[in-house]
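Box 3.1 A note on notation
Throughout this textbook, protein chains are presented in two layers. The first layer is the amino acid sequence; the second is a token string describing backbone geometry. Keep the layers aligned when reading.
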Amino acid sequence: MTLDGCVAVVTGGSGALGSAAASALGFAGATVAVLARRADRLAETVDALTATGVEACALHADVLDRQQLDQARDTVLDRYGRIDILVNAAGGNIPEATLGEGERFFDLPADALRSVLELNLFGTILPCQVFGAAMIPQDTTSRSIVNVSSMASQRALTRVVGYGAAKAAVESFTRWLAVDCARNYGDRLRVNAIAPGFFVGEQNRSLLLDEEGELTTRGRTIVERTPAGRFGEPVDLASTLVWLCSPASRFVTGVVVPVDGGFSAFSGV
């Protein structure tokens, strides 16, 4: 399960899940290149990593901008000479594509739905193309791409139609790319995904918690239907991510691993 000597790129690395992913990889021994759009949050994340002894660098880029991604890849290769791991944690939802109380799906603006699809699907595809091209194995080292999906891809969750459809597309793309890479490179370039259950982040906080930090009606319903009886914490993803990125999972590709406290296994009855 060690990642000593590996170089990892984490997109969306300044977010709650992305920063936890970067920390997990760093603590397992990897050098971590953190990619994000917000320069201030990016600097804070890298500073926090280096303060714990992790070798890390900042990549200021937008996952939907091919030119910025190319520059970020070249920066990593110039500095470290290789890329072994890619974690695509960039994504999320936007308020305009989320149904409010009393609103109808038929009235949702197409542009908002399109934005969510682009952020989550193309925000995964483009980094896979750009960084993945630099991960094509030239030796026997096993390299790994891990995408981030969601429970919304597997279950119909109210209010987040665009986000659910986008993450379902991410899962389909994950399986396709896994097969393509396995047929071309065997177990030396693997592609999998993690499907987190409900974790509190900036984008969904107001849906799950009120201003006092108490559960909203929606938050209470989710916790009641999660057998573990709580929301996930970013650290809960760490061991699964490290496993998928390490040689310990070298015969695992094309799967989506739920990290959800039993949510996907429970009928609600």
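The helical segments are 16-27, 39-51, 66-80, 110-133, 161-185, 205-208, 217-224, 238-245. The chain has eight helices and seven strands.
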